[in-house]
Write a structure and sequence with these properties.
Strand content: 25-35%
CATH topology of the largest domain: TIM Barrel
Largest sheet: 9 strands, antiparallel
CATH class of the largest domain: Alpha Beta
Structural class: alpha+beta
Number of helices: 13
CATH architecture of the largest domain: Alpha-Beta Barrel
Helix content: 10-25%
CATH superfamily of the largest domain: Glycosidases
Number of domains: 3
């Protein structure tokens, strides 16, 4: 027996049978643990644990001192989770993954079939506190995520920084408002998620620096990252949600249309906007108040000259079923001895960020001299939440946390000084110890911590009402507390084009409740541009028309009645689709799979060579699982273009025309762009629930529930509906309604089955209208043993059958004959 063989056997036996034994190999020590492995050598330690069979955590550090095991992003129960593993000589296996660390301290991760998912190109590189990890990159690898970075959906060939920044952006601007250090690596249809949990200034390079490598690193802080394996992208989205939390179920009104401007004032102007929305029968659920409702822009105040009857205005809007969202920036005006409660309380309780000399940091923002609550302290976050008491009593339903990068005016770095001091108090769940740190560590999480204070404060003030918080800045995990938008976009065709990939990557990064300002924030849109933006905005999760104070008006009626009619049509479609939309949002809150999603989320294996299908269709996206929205790649173009369909049967949503993309010989669908039409297609095999038109989500629909039935090639279909009161937490018990609809082929036609209702929330309908597409001719229909009338839908190629629904289930037999 050779000495090399004996050494290898000795190492293997020690790793498998003596997990606590330290085994020397080339000045290294390999220690197998019940849940992973620890390797130490050359002043470097790598600790790799399996949290689940498909989720790994990797930590690396220099020296003997183990870093603080803490996180603002990862949920405590997930961070502490462990599964047993099978030890190998220099690594371990789970049911899904195999991990090895070679003698050069490079990590390789494979799936259970041996396919390499991630492989370090070299050991970690250190330069003082700076460090960088380089990974080998294959020729067919693509990258998605990192939040709302401008640019294309695929990050390959690009580099990015994480440093929350208040900036009006262009296509190449980086960084902007949020730092979400999470991305998807796509290799031939196999997807690996990577969360780099480091709050310091971080950077990511996807083949820009080195042709065959991607990398990530930071200027300081821990090497602490998580690997999530699919291979399906939906599974990775779910694993990320398991790590960092899902989006809480929002109030239903937040899914309606919102009207906003910087700013609507005085009070009479707000009521004028509300009246015009209702007079024009333009569906709407919200009006947002920007900073000019406040006295001298001071948070938690009201300008009584401009808004003399503020509380009555809120109530009048409520009576019109219009909810108010009020802005509250993260700073507090510095106003000693002026009776300004937020400052007086905060100063008395020592709530504000300090400088090294112990004095409050004072910056210049909208109110002038301002101080900043130290949101790293849990007690300060709780105190911040109490500041909403009066506004909640007034009936304000949503709050908008802006300027929370944090933004500071008149300084070169646009934010707090690097040496501003933040206190961190020990937290056993989060893993933090009592210490003081500088702003460089906290900058990227301050906005998220502010929204946590807002959200939790509202939960205490209204225990049984779902809060709505909107934020501009955040970090990984911030979706637990707030929705977001893409910040200060511009009123250009190019920014309309940027909207879709930004929202897709936000959704992939956990922020599924997201939108982009319809019409653009900076500048004044052409009327055709505004109309096209309304069309796309109707298929965003948050649909808000918002613009700056210096732009021309861009309310839906601007540009005349013809433009308003088109814009109204798409917002009305959004409200008619609310059952489908709300059902998708419920699924999102449970699974982490976003509403606005790339095509590859539903069709990861559609391309024969394994590349994501979205690379062939850069403007297309899915609204929920079953609606394909297909604008041209450049929204202002007038040339014909071909829609890229995933394989299967599709139906034109507006006309009902059936498109067979299962047949390789099928012709392309060519679109001639027009102002009036945004191409939308329904997926064969789906059932899409719709409701009669309402003017707000508070209004009870009047009429039958419509189920659009789109059979696939086998004449099969399925769909679901979820509903609840849209406001409370009764759905966590039995205050919900769930039902399913399916269809199957029969010898003579089609059978549609409607399940019994589950849950205690009452249906608003008493009848169900089935709208069946793709049948060659009028069918005969039977329900409960009796013939029922079949009508032709006047505006599309579909057949309608209406039957009573008493909640116990129903079955309809359709016979088409020979």
């Amino acid at each position: 027996m050779s000495s090399l063989f004996r050494s290898t056997v000795k190492l293997f036996l020690a790793a498998v049978f003596l997990p606590s034994m330290q085994v020397a190999l080339h000045a290294q020590a390999v220690q197998a643990t019940p849940n992973g492995v620890r390797v130490t050598g050359n002043n470097l330690t790598i600790e790799l644990n399996a949290l689940r069979d498909d989720v790994l955590r990797v930590r690396e550090w220099q020296g003997a001192k183990i870093p603080e095991d803490s996180s603002w992003a990862v949920l405590p129960h997930s961070r502490a989770s462990r599964v047993p593993v099978t030890a190998t000589a220099r690594g371990f296996r789970t049911k899904s993954l195999e991990v090895s660390i070679d003698e050069a301290m490079r990590i390789t991760v494979r799936d259970s079939d041996g396919k390499v998912l991630q492989q370090q190109a070299e050991p970690v590189r250190y330069d003082d506190t700076n460090f960088r990890l380089y990974m080998k990159m294959t020729d067919d690898e693509h990258f998605f995520g990192l939040g709302d970075k401008p640019g294309p959906l695929d990050r390959r060939g690009m580099s990015f920084a994480d440093w929350n920044t208040d900036i009006g952006y262009s296509e190449s601007t980086d960084p902007i408002y949020k730092s979400i250090p999470f991305f998807y690596s796509w290799r031939s249809g196999h997807v690996l998620g990577v969360l780099f949990d480091n709050t310091w200034r971080a950077s990511f390079d996807f083949g820009k620096e080195r042709e065959h490598e991607y990398s990530f690193g930071s200027v300081n802080g821990p090497i602490d990252y998580y690997l999530m394996y699919g291979p399906d992208p939906k599974q990775v989205a779910g694993e990320y949600a398991w790590l960092t939390g899902t989006t809480p179920m929002p109030p239903k009104w937040t899914l309606g249309y919102q009207q906003s401007r910087f700013s609507y004032f005085p009070e009479s102007r707000v009521m004028e906007i509300a009246k015009r929305l209702r007079d024009d029968k333009f569906p709407a659920d919200g009006i947002d108040l920007d900073i000019d409702y406040q006295q001298n822009h001071r948070p938690f105040t009201v300008d009584r000259k401009q808004f003399p009857s503020f509380e009555q205005m809120i109530q009048q809007l409520k009576d019109e079923h219009i909810h108010v969202v009020a802005i509250t920036d993260l700073h507090i005006a510095k106003l000693p001895d002026a009776g300004y409660k937020p400052y007086d309380e905060g100063e008395a309780q020592n709530r504000f960020v300090k400088m090294p000399d112990g004095k409050d940091f004072v910056g210049w923002v909208w109110p002038g001299d301002t101080v900043f609550p130290d949101y790293t302290v849990a007690d300060t976050r709780a105190w911040w939440g109490t500041l909403y008491t009066d506004f909640v009593k007034d009936g304000i339903d949503g709050f908008w946390n802006d300027m929370n990068e944090p933004s500071v005016f008149n300084v070169a770095n646009k934010t707090m000084p690097d040496d501003a001091q933040h206190a961190i108090r020990g937290d056993e769940d989060l893993g933090f110890k009592d210490r003081v740190t500088n702003h460089l560590e906290i900058h990227n999480v301050l906005g998220m911590l502010q929204t946590e204070g807002t959200y939790e404060g509202l939960r205490k003030l209204r225990p049984n009402e779902r809060p709505f918080v909107l934020t501009r800045a955040s970090y990984a995990g911030g979706q637990r507390y707030a929705a977001t938008w893409t910040g200060d976009n511009s009123s250009t065709w190019n920014h309309l084009r940027l909207t879709t990939p930004m929202l897709e990557n936000l959704g992939l990064s956990g922020f599924a409740m997201a939108g982009a300002d319809v019409g653009g924030f900076r500048g004044s849109p052409q009327m055709d541009l505004l109309t096209k933006w309304f069309e796309i905005g109707a298929f965003q999760t948050i649909d808000r028309d918002h613009t700056t104070d210096t732009s021309r008006p861009q309310e839906p009626w601007e540009g005349g009645s013809a433009h308003e009619a088109i814009r109204r049509k798409y917002v009305e479609t959004r409200y008619e689709l609310m059952p489908y939309f709300y059902t998708t949002v419920k699924s999102m809150s449970q699974t982490g799979v976003p509403v606005v999603r790339p095509l590859f989320m539903e069709f990861p294996e559609d391309a024969t060579d394994g590349h994501p299908i979205d690379l062939d269709a850069p403007a297309e996206f899915l609204f929920g699982p079953d609606l394909l929205v297909a604008p041209p790649e450049f929204p202002e173009e007038t040339d014909d273009y071909a829609v890229v369909f995933p394989k299967g049967i599709w139906y034109d949503y507006w006309t009902g025309v059936r498109i067979d993309k299962q047949n390789p010989a099928s012709k392309d669908v060519t679109i001639t762009p027009t102002l009036e039409i945004l191409p939308v297609y329904a997926r064969g095999g789906s059932v899409i629930p719709e409701q009669p038109l309402v003017q707000s989500t508070d209004e009870k629909p009047n009429g039958p529930l419509t189920l659009r039935v789109y059979p696939d090639a086998a004449n099969a279909c399925s769909g679901a509906l979820y509903d609840d009161d849209g406001k409370s937490y009764a759905f966590e018990h039995d205050g919900y309604l769930k039902m399913e609809a399916t269809c199957t082929a029969t010898a003579g036609g089609l059978t549609i089955h409607l399940s019994a209702h589950r849950g205690q929330f009452p249906a608003w309908w008493h009848e169900v209208q089935f709208e069946i597409y793709g049948l060659p001719k009028r069918p005969a229909a039977q329900f409960a043993g009796h013939n029922v009338t079949v009508e032709h839908a006047p505006t599309c190629d579909a057949w309608r059958v209406t039957v009573p629904d008493n909640g116990t289930g129903a079955e309809i037999q359709l016979t088409t004959g020979s």
